[in-house]
Design goal:
single chain; 484 residues; mainly alpha; Leucine-rich Repeat Variant; 70% helix
């Protein structure tokens, strides 16, 4: 019987013949097993660097139309996946922009099967990344089909179309201009004025995609979207409060882009509102969680950490590392994200902004240093997820000079703990330790004096032995005798 591995060694003509055979068999499927076997062989034949070239052959490509309209979801899914691959190859794109084929893909955009609709949307986004493909998508007759689908489809389909065009607009300045010319951006913004809370939630997600390009950010400001979103952030009524975490997330994504986008947070006075959302005694859990994550995003760049410091948001944010349960994990991961990303671009002096705050965190019992809060969790916390969150913070501290020199290496027992392979029994725990040591050594490459030479040699040996190294009994016995 033919196997997946065997087809790899067939010549091209034979592959084409086998491919046509299995594609034809899809038109007369009698069982799930037969369908599965045929799809498996089609994938195997088209696997590898020359697979898409086979699919694009004159005698094979017409069968793509059959696949797009096949009654079996798995067949349509595979066909759409293959077409996405074709849309990524410039010399195949001319075949892909055939109007009949595009109409067949378009039909899947309104499918009740979400997986097919997502693949159809991905196809159009991939196609739009090429000048010729972008031009085809925005031809008048094709745009009219999208607009008709927008007006006549369900709310679900409506948001699929709007989401697709928001994604297309983020591809390039030219693509954004084309999207704006359709009038679809106005339709997206208009949904913010409706009373439909679910519709607004979907719209805010679409607006996030629009804000991923400078052109999109500029448009959102011109259309007064940022002002409307700030008003939602201040909303007091019960229904609108459901939107607050999503709005906070939007501003976090916006601020993380830096530059003009970050400056808009100051213009619209977003940081003072975020500071209010850090009050753990008065805000809902989901709002606090979103705020912690968002402030970590904003502070992950030099200009972002300066904004947090100048606005007074940094220290209240850091003080919440003393929270309990899930909120403590969120706080830990958010701080870790800030430290690891900030250290990639910040100088030692710029890292001092956050380091100085980390050494004087305000807690209910007075000021404390973050290492005194986080490191004990590694040895006292029985729940793995909380321990991994603490490891994440330690990895953040390990990413900059004073984090290693002041926070970690002098801490009593830290070096012995991090190099002891017996303290973690899980794969994740062992990987965290290895990552932290890796990060410490990378930091030491820039500042060799922060770790004594002997310990650097020991840490290098730890890394060379690998993540899951276990010393043999003989090695351990020799090591024990050496210490006697």
């Amino acid at each position: 019987m033919e196997t997946d591995n065997n087809v790899l060694y067939l010549d091209e003509n034979t592959k084409v013949q086998r491919l046509l055979h299995h594609i034809n068999s899809l038109q007369n499927v009698h069982s799930e097993a037969q369908l599965s076997d045929s799809l498996s062989m089609i994938r195997a034949i088209l696997n590898g660097p020359h697979g898409l070239q086979l699919l694009a052959k004159q005698e094979v490509f017409p069968f793509v139309y059959v696949g797009l309209s096949h009654p079996e979801v798995d067949v349509r899914f595979l066909t759409l996946s293959l077409l996405i691959g074709c849309a990524e190859v410039p010399n195949i794109v001319p075949q892909v922009v055939d109007p009949l084929l595009l109409n067949a893909v378009f039909a899947n955009l309104s499918s009740e099967e979400l997986s097919l609709a997502q693949k159809a949307s991905q196809f159009f986004q991939t196609l739009g990344s090429h000048p010729e493909g972008l031009k085809t998508v925005f031809q008048n007759n094709f745009i009219s089909q999208f607009l008709k689908l927008l007006d006549s489809g369900t709310e679900t389909i409506k948001f699929r179309v709007l989401d697709l065009f928001a994604s297309l607009g983020a591809l390039s300045p030219e693509a954004f201009q084309l999207v704006e010319s359709t009038g679809l951006l106005e339709k997206i913004v208009k949904t913010l004025d409706s009373d439909d809370i679910l519709g607004k939630l979907n719209t805010i997600e679409i607006l996030e995609k629009m804000s991923s390009s400078p052109e999109g950010v500029s448009y959102l400001e011109r259309a007064q979207v940022l002002s409307k979103l700030r008003d939602l952030l201040l909303a007091k009524d019960g229904f609108s409060s459901f939107l607050v975490p999503k709005v906070i997330h939007f501003f976090g994504e916006l601020g993380a882009k830096g530059g003009d986008a970050l400056a808009l947070l100051s213009k619209y006075r977003i940081l003072p509102e975020l500071i209010k959302k850090l009050d753990r005694h008065s805000v809902p859990k989901d709002v606090l969680e979103s705020t912690l994550t968002t402030i970590g995003q904003i502070g992950a760049t030099v200009e972002g950490i300066r904004l947090l410091e100048s606005s007074g948001a940094l220290r209240p944010f850091l003080s919440l590392v003393t929270l309990h349960g899930d909120m403590r994990m969120t706080s830990f991961h958010s701080l870790a994200f800030l430290l690891k990303n900030l250290s990639k671009t910040a100088s030692d002096q710029e890292m001092d902004i956050v380091h100085n705050a980390l050494t004087t965190i305000q807690t209910e019992t007075g000021r404390n240093s973050v290492n005194n809060i986080v490191l004990p969790v590694l040895v006292s916390q029985p729940f793995p997820d909380m321990r991994y969150a603490a490891f994440d913070v330690v990895a953040g501290l390990a990413s900059y000079r004073k984090g290693v020199e002041v926070m970690l290496m002098p801490y009593p027992g830290f070096y012995e703990f991090i190099t002891n392979r017996n303290t973690e029994n899980t794969k994740e725990g062992k990987e965290w330790k290895y990552t932290i040591i890796q990060t410490m050594m990378k930091t030491a490459e820039r500042s060799p004096d922060i770790i004594p030479k002997q310990k650097q040699n020991e840490l290098t040996r730890y890394l060379n032995n690998g993540v899951f190294y276990v010393a043999s009994e003989a090695t351990m016995e020799v090591a024990t005798q050496d210490t006697v």
